[in-house]
Amino acid sequence: VNPPIPERSSREPALPENMDVAEIPWNSRRRGCDLGSMRLLVFTFVALASFAALNPLQEASRHLSAVPARDRLAKRSPSTTRTPLRSSRAEEGTVMTPKRLKISKKEPISSDFQDDDEDDDDIDDDIDDDEDEDDDDDDFYQDMSEFDDTPVRFKDVDGDRILFKLGKKGQLSEYVNGVLEVKTVKQLSYDSKSGTVYDECGNFVVPKAYRKLILQDIVRLTNLAYPPVKLYGFDRYVKEEAIEDDIPVLNHDQIQAAIKNEQERIKNATKAVEGMQKLVGKWKKQLGDEEKDRQGDALPTWQKIHLMASIKRRKKDIDNLESDIKAMEKARSYMEETVTLYKLDLNETLAGPKVPEISECRTVVVAPPKDGNWPMNPLHTGHAERSETPNSFTVTIAAPGMTEEDVRVSIKDNTLLIKAAIQQILDGGSCIQTIDREFSLPINADAAKVKASFSGGNLVVEIPKLNALPPNEEKSIPIAVHKKESQAGDANKGGKK
Fold it and tell me: Which helix (H) or strand (E) holds 128?
């Protein structure tokens, strides 16, 4: 039922004569009421109210974006602020140091920005999204409570520093022994005095989630180290345990078992390298096929884009696999060197005590009696000295206590014979001294001109040489020239012609 129609004022336009009152809309029949104007007023009021409410948040957003992330973290309450990993504790050597701390969406905002929680969460979301875009390649970020700073102890055989290269996510990528400069994001070094592995800031601090994997990588890499890394116990290889200074020596059976183990590892490494090389060849073939397909004109654009992404992934996988092959070949060379060291140790265990060799037939050198420190016995004789000059041979024999009458010198069968005998009566007995020596004369000795003399207890026999020149005399010898028979024969043939 329609309500009663109000009286029309003089300002309102008159209705058409052929229009019924019931056909007029209700909102047009109300006095002074326009629905469009009402909606415009409501919308304007809501917009002004929203703008007045958002103005403080916009000022806060501008202020927050102008403040560095480090200052933003400082404005948080102490109960909710996370300790930055690049803090002053790094000087003490107990903290790992990623570049900066990532703002968490779940952390409450301090009282300075708690006017509107929902709007602040949106601002933090925008900030996090911007930082995520810039930090895709940065290191991972962790809370300090998620790190484990338990030290790990190792011992190197030669006392060198052991260095490890860590990747951006904490995994070990390479082992270096004895090199002090490593260009990497993080660096672990080994102190031979304390036996602790350190990072670039001090102690060895790793995330709890990655600790087991990182220690397994360290054990694997140090097992391939050269010189080898020893641990406490009957094993060359390092483990996660305390190491003492006294390392027992491996016995024969243990060395043989270690050699067998290393040879098995070398065999497995060879099989792994061959398998990876086959896989690389297969992937390269697939890569070539995909590149040919992408260059064809029959494929649609979306499929070419898909092939381009697949080719990029394939090239990356091939590069990674080739680097793994190089690492495995390097590890295999370390294993072979370790086997060589084990064999050297095995030879040392097999070798007995070294005793100098003594020949069954040997010559004992006796010093002349006159060079001794004992008193000269006048009856001791027999020492002989031989010498040679350009014109003669000389033999000198010591004969103390004798005279020329006691000595006899003769030549027989080109042999010089010297014999002598003397007897002396002493207190409580007697002493007999004899000389019986024979010397073979050289071919050029003139036996007919041998001379003997006795002086100062020494017998001197001089044997001149045959055809010897007088002292300090030089004789010129002519050189005869003989013609060769071959030259004479050629001359005869030439005469016949």
Answer: helix 117-134
